[in-house]
Amino acid sequence: xxxxxxxxxxxxxxxxxxxxxxxxxxxxxxxxxxxxxxxxxxxxxxxxxxxxxxxxxxxxxxxxxxxxxxxxxxxxxxxxxxxxxxxxxxxxxxxxxxxxxxxxxxxxxxxxxxxxxxxxxxxxxxxxxxxxxxxxxxxxxxxxxxxxxxxxxxxxxxxxxxxxxxxxxxxxxxxxxxxxxxxxxxxxxxxxxxxxxxxxxxxxx
Length: 205
Description:
By secondary structure, the protein is an all-alpha fold.
């Protein structure tokens, strides 16, 4: 028996041919996972960028805090300098009054020089002579032979001459100090030196 295709069957076949076979559930899942992977990568990139920016902000904050700390320290230094300068000004005025009562700056230096001269005379003359006398009068010296005693006396005399030469040089320096201060006056820098204070530390920029 021969069957003929009816118009309805022809229409059904055409419709069937017009549809493509779907990829199924597996293909759909793969497509979904691909999109999710791209999203995760973007998210990871955003996190890395955020961490980098955060680190930059933290570094900037540290620099800013350090700068603020330096400003605080500088303010304290300026305050300390102002206090020290005020104290030095007070000491300067009181010292000038004292110098005025003594007869002036030159007279002050002369008295200081005389005191230093007396100190040298004691250290390099009287003290040395006492040491030499102690050696020559000791029992150890008396036990030496006459030749050794004479040799030791020559050594002591040489030491005495060297001490006198040194003392003379120092006295000349002191005399020059007196001459240089003639008609001079006490300065703030010299006052700081006398007080053993760093002038540049207090008055420097």
